[in-house]
Amino acid sequence: MSIYDFTVKDQQGNDVSLSDYKGKVLLVVNTATECGFTPQYADLQKIYDEFHDQGLEILDFPCNQFGNQAPGSNDDIHTFCTGRFGITFPQFDKIDVNGDDTAPLYRWLKDHSTFEGLGNGPMSLVLKPIVKKMDPDYKNNSNIKWNFTKFLINRDGALVARFEPTKKMAQVREAVQAAIEQ
Known about the structure:
4-stranded mixed β-sheet
């Protein structure tokens, strides 16, 4: 099974086959509009603007599982993101990324990636105790830890990197550029 075998719902509830993105570099991200990481939308849009014409697509999946930080409807979320951050990349239906109702795409992403830690920056120090309270064994599983976890998929559909929300966006940009240039 590959990423191209999945069908997801767009923000209007229509089916979208991820096979439509064959040959593209994909950055798949679970987002929230009321999170401390929400300003990453601006960084994501800059990356999208820089690399979209070279084959990058960012696939935005709102998720309300972490601190109820993605309230509202798909339309509310889209209005906020376009108005506040000017995003132009595709947004999809709100989903679950962990638990019994995990979206099949996210089950596959987690099954094909490894959690490599939250780092030691200021946001990491804030996030670690919150994540540990939610999942005492968080260091030993591939569950999504928080909003704005990103997955980089190369043009062949292979998952090549996972970035926790605490990863510097400059490092995400560098990895996207490397995948574009391959």
